[in-house]
C-alpha cells in the first residue's frame, strides 16, 4: 500500500513535467561527487520531504535573505553577489505566492528546490548562498521561524476566545445553574463564574505558549552540519535580522534539538484537553436532558434520517481532535528518544506531526472563539435545574454553623432534613419552618434567605467565589490584563 502511494507521488511529479529519477542525471546534484550511481527511484520518492516541507518556503527564504546579508557584511560575498541573491529570492518568493513555482521531488526538500530555482534565475551566485551553512542548521532555523509565527497566530485565537468568554461571563454574572461534582448537583453557581473557570484554563495555556515561544526564539543558523563553519560568519548579525532573542551556543545540539517542537505539542495537547472539557459540557448542555443552551445553526449539522436532530458537531470534532493532538506529542517524543547526536534523517519525521498539530490547535481555537460567545443561554432551564438535587444543602449547614452548631453536627442535621424532603418529594426551601426546626431548634425564619438560589450564590462574595460581584470583579481584572498584554493578529504563518 505504501509502495503504491509513493509511486503515485512519482507519477504526479512526471505529469507536471518535473524531473524525477527516470530522467535525472546519473548522480544526484546534491551529492554527485561522492556517489557513482543514481539514487533508486523508489528511494528518491521515499526520502523526499518536499511534499510537506514546502510549507516552510517563506521561512526558508526569510532565513536565506538574512544569511546572505550577513555574508556580505562579513566580506564573504560582495555587495553585487548579495544583491543578486536578494533579487533572485524575491522572484522565487513571488513565484511561490502566485502558484507558479515548480516543486521537484528529485530535489528532495524545500531548501534545494528554492536554491536550484534561485541558481536558474541568477546563475552561479545562487550556489554561493549555501556558503557557511548546511541543510541541517537551515531546516532547524526554518522550523523555529515557522513555529514562532504559528505560536503567535494560536495566541491570537486563544486571546479572542478568552475575550469572548469574558464578555459572555459579564452578561451572565447573575444567571444561575447547578454546579456539579461527580456529575451530581452540588451547589448553585453563576454561569459567569463557570465561564470564567474555562477562561482560567485558557490563561494558563496562554502562559505556557508564551514561555515556549521564548525557548523557540533561539537561532541555530551558523551551526552548519554539526560543528560550525570555517568561514568568518557573524551569527549576531543574522539573529538580529531574523528577530531571534538569542543564539544556540552548541552546534551539535542546535542542529539536532527538537525540544521546542515537543514542548509546543505538549502545550497544544493541554489546550486541546481544555477545549475537550468545554466540548463535553457544551454537548451535555445542548442535549434534551439538559436544555441549558442552544448553538447557532452554523456550528451544527442535522441527521440524514432524523429530521428533528441538531448535532453539536464542532464541539464533538474538537473533542475527537484532542486524541489526534495527543498522538502527535507521543509520536515526536518517540521519534527523538533514541537519536544520537547530531542530525539524523529521523528528524525529517518531525514536520508532519508538528504541522498537523499547529493546524489542529489553530483551527480548534478559531472555531471555539466564534462558537462559544454565540451560545444562546436558556436561563430558566438552568435555574430550574439548580432547584433540583438540594443544591442549597451546604448553605443550610453553613447557617447552622453560624448559629454555633459544630459543622459535623450541622452536616448530620442537614442530611436528615434532605432525607425528609426527598421522602416528601420537595426541596429544602419547600419545608415549613416548623419542620426545619424539628431537625434543629436554632433554625429561625431567616433560614429561608439562605435557602434561595440567589442568596446562595450572593453569599459567596469573596475572591474566587461565585457571587455576581466577584464575577464582575474578575471580568474587570481580565480586561485589564488584555490591555496590559495585547496580542496582535498574525496574518501569515
Task: Describe the protein.
The chain is mostly helical. The protein folds into three domains: 2-131, Orthogonal Bundle (Fumarase C, Chain B, domain 1); 136-170 and 189-384, Fumarase/aspartase (Central domain) (Fumarase C, Chain A, domain 2, Up-down Bundle); 389-484, Ribonucleotide Reductase Protein R1, domain 1 (Orthogonal Bundle), CATH 1.10.40.30. It has 21 helices and six strands. The strands form three sheets. The chain has a two-stranded antiparallel sheet with strand order 1-2. A two-stranded parallel sheet has the order 3-4. Strands 5-6 form a two-stranded antiparallel ribbon. Strand 3, helix 10 and strand 4 form a beta-alpha-beta unit. Helix 1 (2-15) packs across helix 2. The model is unreliable at 1-27 (pLDDT under 50).
Summary, kept brief:
This protein is mainly alpha-helical and 493 residues long. The chain contains 21 helices and six strands.
Q: For the report, how would you describe the main beta sheet?
A: 2 strands, antiparallel
CATH topology term of the largest domain: Fumarase C, Chain A, domain 2
Q: How many helical stretches?
A: 21
Q: Give the fraction of residues assigned to helices.
A: 55-70%
Amino acid at each position: 500500500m505504501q509502495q503504491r502511494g509513493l509511486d503515485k507521488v512519482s507519477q504526479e511529479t512526471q505529469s507536471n513535467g518535473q524531473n524525477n529519477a527516470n530522467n535525472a542525471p546519473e548522480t544526484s546534484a546534491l551529492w554527485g561527487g561522492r556517489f557513482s550511481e543514481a539514487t533508486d527511484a523508489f528511494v528518491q520518492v521515499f526520502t523526499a520531504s518536499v511534499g510537506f516541507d514546502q510549507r516552510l518556503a517563506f521561512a526558508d527564504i526569510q532565513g536565506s535573505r538574512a544569511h546572505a546579508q550577513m555574508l556580505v557584511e562579513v566580506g564573504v560575498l560582495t555587495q553585487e553577489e548579495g544583491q543578486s541573491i536578494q533579487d533572485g529570492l524575491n522572484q522565487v518568493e513571488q513565484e511561490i505566492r502566485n502558484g507558479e513555482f515548480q516543486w521537484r521531488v528529485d530535489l528532495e526538500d524545500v531548501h534545494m528546490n528554492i536554491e536550484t530555482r534561485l541558481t536558474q534565475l541568477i546563475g552561479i551566485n545562487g550556489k554561493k548562498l549555501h556558503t557557511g551553512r548546511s541543510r541541517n542548521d537551515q531546516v532547524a532555523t526554518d522550523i523555529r521561524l515557522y513555529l514562532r509565527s504559528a505560536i503567535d497566530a494560536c495566541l491570537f485565537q486563544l486571546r479572542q476566545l478568552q475575550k469572548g468568554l469574558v464578555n459572555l461571563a459579564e452578561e451572565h454574572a447573575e444567571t444561575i445553574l447547578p454546579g456539579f461534582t461527580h456529575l451530581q448537583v452540588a451547589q448553585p453557581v453563576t454561569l459567569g463564574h463557570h465561564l470564567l473557570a474555562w477562561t482560567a484554563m485558557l490563561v494558563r495555556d496562554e502562559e505556557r505558549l508564551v514561555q515556549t515561544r521564548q525557548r523557540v526564539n533561539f537561532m541555530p543558523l551558523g551551526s552548519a552540519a554539526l560543528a560550525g563553519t570555517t568561514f568568518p560568519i557573524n551569527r549576531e548579525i543574522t539573529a538580529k535580522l531574523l528577530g531571534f532573542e538569542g543564539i544556540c551556543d552548541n552546534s551539535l545540539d542546535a542542529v539536532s534539538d527538537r525540544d521546542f517542537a515537543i514542548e509546543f505539542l505538549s502545550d497544544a495537547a493541554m489546550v486541546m484537553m481544555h477545549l475537550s472539557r468545554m466540548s463535553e459540557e457544551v454537548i451535555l448542555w445542548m442535549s434534551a436532558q439538559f436544555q441549558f443552551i442552544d448553538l447557532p445553526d452554523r456550528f451544527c449539522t442535522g441527521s440524514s434520517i432524523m429530521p428533528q436532530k441538531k448535532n453539536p458537531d464542532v464541539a464533538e470534532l474538537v473533542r475527537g481532535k484532542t486524541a489526534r493532538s495527543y498522538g502527535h506529542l507521543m509520536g515526536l517524543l518517540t521519534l527523538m528518544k533514541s537519536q544520537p547526536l547530531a542530525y539524523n534523517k529521523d528528524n525529517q519525521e518531525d514536520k508532519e506531526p508538528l504541522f498537523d498539530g499547529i493546524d489542529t490547535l489553530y483551527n480548534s481555537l478559531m472555531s471555539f472563539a466564534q462558537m462559544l460567545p454565540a451560545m444562546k443561554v436558556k436561563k430558566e432551564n438552568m435555574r430550574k435545574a439548580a432547584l433540583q438535587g438540594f443544591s442549597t444543602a451546604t448553605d443550610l449547614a453553613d447557617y447552622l454553623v453560624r448559629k454555633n452548631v459544630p459543622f459535623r453536627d450541622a452536616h448530620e442535621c442537614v442530611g436528615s432534613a434532605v432525607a425528609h424532603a426527598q421522602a416528601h418529594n420537595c426541596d429544602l426551601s419547600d419545608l415549613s419552618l416548623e419542620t426545619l426546626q424539628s431537625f434543629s431548634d436554632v433554625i429561625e425564619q431567616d433560614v429561608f434567605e439562605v435557602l434561595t438560589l440567589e442568596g446562595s450564590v450572593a453569599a459567596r462574595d469573596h475572591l474566587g467565589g461565585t457571587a455576581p460581584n466577584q464575577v464582575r470583579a474578575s471580568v474587570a481584572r481580565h480586561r485589564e490584563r488584555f490591555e496590559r498584554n495585547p496580542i496582535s493578529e498574525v496574518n501569515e504563518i
